[in-house]
Amino acid sequence: MNTIEDFYPLSPMQQGILFHTLSASKFKMYFLQFGCTICGDFHTLEFKNAWQRVVEEYQILRTSFIWEGLKEPVQVVHREVKLPWEELDWRGLESQEQQERLQAFIKADQEQGFELAQVPLIRFTLIQLTEKDYQFIWSYHHLLADAWSASLILKAVFEYYNAFIQGKELNLENPRPYRDYIAWLQQQDLLKAEMFWRQWLKNFTAVTSLRKDQKISSVDSQDGSYNQQFIQLSTATTAKLQSLTQQQQLTLNTLVQGAWALILSSYSGKEDVVFGVICSGRSATLPEIDSMVGLFFNTLPMRVHIEPEKGLVPWLKQLQVKQAEMQQYEFSPLVKIQRWSDVPLGLPLFDTTLNFHNYPLDVALREGQYQNFKLDNYWSFAKVNYPLWVEIFSGQQLLIRITYDSCCFDTDMVNGILKQFESILCTMVTQPHIKLDALKAIMNEVNKKQQIAKEEKLKEARLEKFKKLKKQKVS
């Protein structure tokens, strides 16, 4: 016990992540990676020391999770941990070989995962590519932190780094411990939350799925075969979307959720749809919560009714009111919401999720103050317990990224979904007063064109195959 600083229960979201991680342990669920290049006059020792200081400051980075032999799992804060730091020198390799090695390293790192009962659940790799170019990789388990917290951690790291290279001593204000958030959660009125969610999900009995010919179960294949596709809107279109939100007093998040609801309705044929939305969890009435580090986000069921005769803008405003209603109960454990719903036990409430990043990591890093170097080429990897999830990154050009289980969705389908997304958002800009039935007709037209293009592609592939077989016969 001399090595233990503190221990306390898990948040409901942590409990859910722990359950899914353990139930599919070989697939390394909820393993996260962040990477970037560092270019310029960079001091590796000071960078390492900055990380060491941040690990000492933030309890959550010294936390492990114990469950065996206990009535309920607990998280254990250790007094000290050895920084898992590796430095590699690839300066003697050609650029192509460096990239091949990097991809192999990233994949091997993902497969390694973490032992949740052992600290720390983080590790760092710094690879020197040239005299002034480095690749940095930070791997960690989602039980520790969400994207907002990761931004705060990186901000603190570079503040310490800047101080160290100037020979200064920096003492940042100690962040409020994560256990205070756990205590706040335990004080919330779940009876009131139950009443809200029972009404919210009343008479909703079947998951809204993009998959038409596949049986939905509580656990998908999870074979680890995940792919990503993305689409980036033009600067002009993004600016027009921002202008629309200001004119109509809407948020960009509302526009995106409305677009996703319409896509789900189009694919499922239903006008009452439910999908998961990621809430930051930072609206809690807890002082200093915006600067706390840990796992605060929650995944909640957003229910949307498509009303064909309604105008687009009034419908979106109605959706925004519903978002605000739901936000009051964003502390609610998803596992309890599931029990309070009319969806049969053993089936999920949803199998797609949407995450509008309201604190984009790359924006936070880009706005940081760095001494004689720059950060670039940000990338991230995450594996979560859903067959498809959508991430929206705001900025000068809105980026929509879909990560999907390739056993459930094919590349053409996901590409079609992204084009639908773009089409709907562009229509919102050009025809904000359109009715939903007219908007759905435009979507159906896009679907038809995509289907024709797909059939043409298949026809060409069959013809090419036939030609090859014929050529082989002749020879």
Automatic annotation (TrEMBL):
One Pfam family in the UniProt entry: Condensation
Ranges of residues in domain Condensation: 5-445
SUPFAM superfamilies documented for this protein: CoA-dependent acyltransferases
InterPro entries membership: CAT-like_dom_sf (IPR023213), Condensation_dom (IPR001242)
Protein name, per record: Condensation domain-containing protein
Natural source organism: Anabaena lutea FACHB-196
Lineage, broadest ranks: Bacteria, Bacillati, Cyanobacteriota, Cyanophyceae, Nostocales
